[in-house]
TrEMBL record:
Gene name per UniProt: TSR1
GO molecular function, a single term: GTP binding
Protein's recorded name: Pre-rRNA-processing protein TSR1 homolog
Pfam families recorded: AARP2CN, RIBIOP_C, Tsr1_G-like
Keyword Nucleus among record annotations: yes
Purpose of the protein: Required during maturation of the 40S ribosomal subunit in the nucleolus.
Keywords: Nucleus, Ribosome biogenesis
């Protein structure tokens, strides 16, 4: 309906031409001849959603994340998932774990208790709630057991003392757990009912204050009655699970039972049958398996025995019948003899190889066979070089300089400090060695990289492997130049980051054939030494991780670490240290270098307490993220935590440069020239190092013009007049490589000496 009096255009209304967009547009349309190109819609336009669509998309993502968290909670401890693994960790000598376990076992009649014998722990089966738990106690003072169990635990249950909370051993244990990566945890405090009411309130306030520093936003659960234990179980079952990246991408399990079958050739090596629940990812029989603390092995087959912790009453009755029988084998392995189904057997064409090193060909690169004359000349030259090196070493040993022999020792050899602490005199010798280390660390802080020029060995001979650089930051250095022979034994990726992303994307999107998460399986592991079974019989946990492709191969690993505040002893480069990297333990002698964004990184002779450093070692490939803990073994076999951090990269091309600084003093000073002495002691050395640029501690730069006399004096030109108290420096550089000292066998540490008083330290947790 048109309102009265409204104007309506008539048939003679002017019609203007539409804008054509210019002649170029028309020309392109004419050239196209009416054809329309098929053009994909850009991703940017696809993302330009309306406000309602964006809100709907965010709502869908939020709902998907919520459903994933709920599905994870429902699967953990349910019939289809693995039992909820809870590791009980006492943090105080008065915190008795057996009282806590006894209280947790005293639930209602619907809960079935399954004794695990020698393994130390029990299982709770609740068919009414459709939940099942497995409780394992970490041996007090056994650091390796605590760290290994924390690698696979769903939850950690810390048992605190009602008065002091945790002692020094508990503090050390917490420091290691925070650095390795802490899974979901809960805090329980049994006892304290015998204290007077006023002291009980004061102790509770003191404990709450200490917990607030170490465990922010953590809830403290008293554990004295059955009702309190039920609340604790409900909290363990419903709290959100925290993920550790290094274990979520790898299949792993904690051994429930184990059986050793000796081999035909020797009783010391055989097949180890390990049963447990698959966790993390799908288990493939063709992959390699790493037994924590023992090494890498291959599997022959995977079986599916009856589930000993099934919520099905029929299976539980069968298990009760098997429990009535005496232990003819370790931890009831007779259960595996009944109704065992073979899930999969290894495919020799798809099985991963155990080869960890490249076998170098010594004749690689040779084109012609040498003649007899050439062989005799080479042998004579080799003997002459050996004789010269022996004389050089003797001369350096008799040299009066103190800095240089220590430098050479740090460069060529590793001093083992695993000395026996039997006599007091030996303890005094150890104290003297530590005092000498403190002196060297202090000298390195005051005069970084400075060394004394030897008097009886020409500098051009002593420093013949070093070179000068115009600029440490911008001067080029070929990463493939003068590589050591050990580099022929390692593996290197063309693009490590791309390989890692492709591998992780494959794990997330593609489905792997094998045993799914939650299945109870038996792994047949080949060529395992009997010491693994003996360790399991002693009550130590047996933890298994499946390796990703290439993770058995040796390469150069770089770790970014920071000094732990609990340790202040000097740690020199190339000292033997103990590494806990992800799921591995090994010993190695690392290099320390600065963490910069440049292509060259300066070597550090000591582990600095005030900066993050990069630690470089030869070790098996591990795909990050992975946490790392560095320990140093004392003479009494205790392990001190000295540094924590994470895996930075797997890169053999990372260039670590060792710097040497030769110093001289101005003897005569002119406008822009000076006569410098004490840097060299003969004319030939001055001529040899003439192309290298000079600098001073006060910022002047210059170069050598000419030698003066025959005793090492030289005339130098600078960009300004020197001060009499200034020092002239000459920098020399050489690329260094780590020593091949990798050893996968780490000795067990002695228990930590407990003391009542502790000082909690706030630390950063590694995820």
């Amino acid at each position: 309906m048109v309102a009265a009096g409204a104007h309506r255009p008539g048939p003679l209304k002017q019609q203007n031409k539409a804008h054509k967009g210019g002649k170029h547009s028309g020309a392109s349309q004419r050239r196209a001849g009416g054809r329309v190109s098929v053009k994909a819609q850009p991703r940017r336009r696809l993302r330009d959603l309306s406000r309602v669509d964006r809100r709907h998309q965010a709502l869908q993502l939020r709902r998907q994340r919520k459903e994933a968290v709920l599905a994870e909670k429902r699967s953990l401890g349910s019939r289809d998932g693995p039992p909820h693994l809870v590791v009980v960790v006492p943090l105080h000598c008065r915190a008795a774990a057996h009282d806590t376990l006894r209280l947790l076992q005293s639930q209602d009649s619907a809960v079935v208790h399954v004794d695990e014998g020698k393994a130390g722990g029990f299982a709770l089966l609740c068919p009414r709630l459709k939940q099942r738990w497995r409780f394992v106690t970490a041996q007090t003072g056994d650091l390796h057991a605590v760290l290994d169990l924390a690698k696979v635990a769903d939850s950690l249950l810390f048992i605190l003392d009602a008065v002091d909370g945790w002692d020094s051993a508990g503090e050390h244990c917490l420091s290691c757990l925070f650095a390795q990566g802490l899974p979901t945890y809960a805090l329980a405090v049994p006892g304290g009912t015998d204290l007077p009411p006023k002291k009980r309130i004061d102790a509770r306030k003191k404990l709450a204050k200490a917990i607030e520093k170490r465990f922010p936003e953590a809830k403290l659960f008293p554990l004295n009655t059955e009702q309190e234990s039920s609340l604790l179980l409900r909290h363990l079952a419903t709290q959100k699970q925290r993920h550790l990246a290094f274990r979520d991408r790898r299949a792993h399990l904690l051994a429930y039972t184990a059986e050793f079958v000796p081999g035909q050739e020797s009783d010391l090596v055989g097949t180890l049958k390990v049963s447990g629940f698959v966790r993390g990812q799908t288990l493939d029989v063709n992959s390699l398996v790493h037994i924590v603390g023992h090494g890498d092995f291959q599997m022959s087959q995977v079986d599916a025995p009856p589930d000993p912790l099934s919520l099905n009453p029929r299976v539980v009755k069968g298990q009760k019948r098997s429990q009535d029988m005496e232990d003819d084998s370790v931890n009831g392995t007779d259960e595996m003899e009944e109704d065992v189904k073979v899930l999969m057997k290894v495919d020799p064409h798809k099985q991963e190889s155990l080869q960890s090193e490249v076998i170098p060909d010594p004749m690689e690169g040779e084109q012609t066979w040498p003649t007899e004359e050439e062989l005799q000349e080479a042998e004579a030259s080799l003997k002459a070089n050996r004789r010269y090196l022996q004389e050089l070493i003797l001369q350096e040993g008799e040299s009066s300089g103190e800095e240089e022999p220590a430098e050479e020792e740090c460069e060529t050899m590793t001093v083992s400090e695993c000395l026996r602490d039997d006599q007091y005199d030996e303890k005094m010798e150890e104290d003297e060695q530590m005092l000498e280390k403190y002196k060297q660390e202090r000298m390195d802080e005051m005069f970084p990289d400075e060394v004394d020029t030897p008097r009886d060995v020409p500098a051009r001979v002593r420093f013949q492997k070093y070179r000068g650089l115009k600029s440490f930051r911008t001067s080029p250095w070929d990463p493939k130049e003068n590589l050591p022979r050990d580099y022929a034994r390692i593996f290197q990726f063309q693009d490590f980051s791309r390989t890692r992303k492709h591998l992780f994307r494959k794990i997330e999107k593609e489905e792997t054939e094998g045993a799914s998460v939650g299945w109870y399986v038996t792994l047949h592991i080949c060529n395992v030494p009997v010491s693994v079974m003996e360790s399991f019989k002693e009550g130590k946990p047996l933890v298994l991780f499946l390796l990703l492709p290439h993770e058995q191969k040796m390469s150069v690993l770089n770790f970014l670490v920071r000094r732990h505040p609990s340790n202040s002893e000097p740690v020199r480069a190339k000292e033997e240290l103990i590494f806990h990297c992800g799921f591995r333990r090994f010993r190695a002698s690392p290099l320390f270098s600065q963490h910069t964004s440049a292509d060259k990184h300066k070597l550090e002779r000591f582990l600095r307490p005030d900066a993050a450093l990069v630690v470089t070692v030869y070790a098996p490939i591990t795909f990050p993220p992975a946490s790392v803990l560095l320990f140093k073994q004392r003479s009494n076999a205790m392990h001190d935590l000295i540094a924590t951090g994470s895996l930075l990269s797997v890169d053999p091309d990372r260039i670590v440069i060792k710097r040497l600084v030769l110093s001289g003093h101005p003897f005569k000073i002119f406008a822009k020239t000076a006569v410098v002495r004490y840097m060299f002691f003969n004319r030939e050395d001055v001529m040899w190092f003439k192309p290298v640029e000079l600098r001073t501690k006060w910022g002047r730069r210059g170069h050598i013009k000419e030698p003066l006399g025959t005793h090492g004096h030289m005339k130098c030109h600078f960009d300004g007049q020197l001060k009499s108290q200034d020092t002239v420096l000459l920098n020399l550089y050489k690329r260094v490589f780590p020593k091949w000292t990798y050893d996968p066998h780490v000795p067990e540490p002695v228990p930590w000496v407990r003391s009542e008083s502790t000082l909690p330290v706030q630390e950063v947790e590694m995820e």
